[in-house]
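User: Could you check the structure of this?
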Amino acid sequence: MTERQIHEHSDDVLNDTTKMLNKQYNAAYKEARDFLAIELAKVELSGTAQERFGELSKYDRLDKICEKLADIFVNANKASKKEVNNLAVSVYKINYDWQAEQLGLKGTNKAESKEAYEEVDIFDTIAFAALTDKKSIEREIKSKIVQALMSKAGVRPIITAIKNVAESNLSDNVRIATTATTQTENKGRADVVEVAKKQGRKFRKVWRAVGDSRTRQAHRLASGQVQDFDKPFIVGGEKMMYPADVSLGASAKNTINCRCRMAVIEYDGQTS
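Assistant: Sure, the predicted structure tokens are below.
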């Protein structure tokens, strides 16, 4: 496979995971919708905004509804984390093994790939912490429901509000998956080079942007930038060892949803 083909292969794994996430959040939304339909049928949601709010708040009804809905979405987010972790391990292994083959080195096994992925799981840990914080999600859901109650009578506005919560959670998880794919694609390649360097071999690296309408301007400008392997790329004024790397403090504006990749070049060690 060429470097471009292996990048496309990584994208295929991401696309499969994204389809799986869509199924998970469709199922979570349907469960939430069906639960709401049953609970809201028990109350009168006509009258003024204050009357609607008062009716739904009786007997801690609103809090209990929000708690149950939070459980549904927290469970979906926990399942999503497992999918993203599996994605990241697969992408790491695909790219490690491909780069190893290019350099005449041995590939890796799944356990080693998982261990290596966990070393770069900084962004994902932070992001998933918010998505699995039940109290935080309860507050978000309650806010959405209250806004819906105040805006219009009936059940439909509340159902729509919860659908928006499901779509927001899906969007967050797809963003995490995209970023994790870029992190582990490039980390896998970088780890092979570290092994090769122990043999006295010399390398440079090249930043390659996708270059489509979604590409950040800073990443478009960085495309083609060449650095000695041990030196960071300078992208948008920030340092990164490879695309989506956060180890040197690169901000979210430079890492989240990044789809760039790093190409490796071996050379004779002479300055040119």
